[in-house]
Write a structure and sequence with these properties.
This protein is an alpha+beta fold. It contains ten helices and six strands, in the order ββαααβββααβααααα. It has two domains: 5-116, Alpha-Beta Plaits, CATH 3.30.70; 121-227, no CATH class. 57% of the residues lie in helices and 12% in strands. Strands 1-2-4-3 form a four-stranded antiparallel β-sheet. Strands 5-6 form a two-stranded antiparallel ribbon. The radius of gyration is 25 Å and the shape is elongated.
Length: 269
């Protein structure tokens, strides 16, 4: 049996591209497995449930449906193995591209899978001195204003190369939310944007800027917490989830919010 071939290109911004050739043997094997699973519940005129021959089952299925199921299974299996073998820690769903769109299950598939790990961030060595000046500025008396100034200072002090695929992933997610919200309100996206006195291009640019700033701040908070050994205890998490048990469904979010609070408390001292 032919083996699959893999080549991985890792970029400095923590994105990576997996170039994968999936062998015809692997594809054919997965193709038969999918057909058998469909055959078990398949009903067709002249045959009892689950008794139709494989060629009849395949003939009555659309190629697009069968291809989607075979591709989903074989690519997810191969990608998971590559991730495991190379100790990669992707943080987003991968983008998959066929170098040549297959028209059957009888040839090797050449694909590219792009994803990214958590980006690395660096803070200016004097960032704490800049924040101390904010804390001692007599003109800043409001806590919210102080927080805003600290956030601006962190954005100025941070150096990070965010992968394009990471920004695009968040962007598409938020644009999908925009479409859903507009549909629920019974209006088109264009009508919503007009009500906000903007257009899709400007909305997209502002969204990209917002996503970039959010990632920069989140990564800065994570780095400060790591450098300053700021941790959240299980007891602190339990105190929050006891008051709101629904948050047990998202412990990571609770941990991040508490970490964020502790980091800002540290920065405001």
């Amino acid at each position: 049996m032919k083996t699959n071939q893999t080549n991985i290109e890792k970029l400095a911004n923590k994105s990576f591209v997996v170039k994968l050739t999936i062998s015809q043997d692997k594809i054919a094997k997965t193709h038969q497995e999918i057909l058998k699973s469909i055959q078990a519940d398949f009903e067709s005129k002249g045959f009892r449930k689950g008794k139709a021959p494989m060629d009849v089952v395949e003939k009555e299925l659309s190629f697009e449906k069968l291809f989607e199921e075979v591709a989903s299974k074989v690519i997810s299996q191969e990608y998971a193995q590559v991730i495991k073998d190379n100790n990669l820690k992707p943080i987003i769903q991968p983008q998959v591209k066929f170098n040549k769109q297959p028209t059957d299950f009888k040839t090797d598939w050449e694909i590219e899978i792009t994803a990214c790990e958590l980006p690395e961030i660096n803070l200016d060595k004097n960032y704490l001195d800049k924040i101390k000046k904010i804390n001692t500025d007599s003109k800043i008396t409001d806590e919210n204003q102080k927080t805003d100034e600290i956030v601006k200072s962190l954005l100025d002090s941070a150096k990070v190369d965010l992968p394009e695929i990471l920004i695009e992933s968040d962007l598409q997610h938020q644009l999908s939310n925009l479409v859903n919200q507009a549909q629920q309100a019974g209006i088109s996206v264009s009508q919503y944007l007009e009500s906000q006195k903007t257009n899709i291009d400007d909305y997209r640019k502002n969204l990209e800027k917002k996503i970039t700033q959010e990632w920069t701040i989140n990564l800065s908070i994570q780095k400060i917490a790591q450098d300053e050994k700021i941790e959240v205890s299980e007891t602190e998490i339990k105190e929050v989830t006891d008051k709101n048990p629904a948050l047990l469904q998202n412990i990571n979010m609770v941990n991040y919010i508490l970490t964020q609070q502790k980091v800002f408390d540290f920065l405001k001292k």
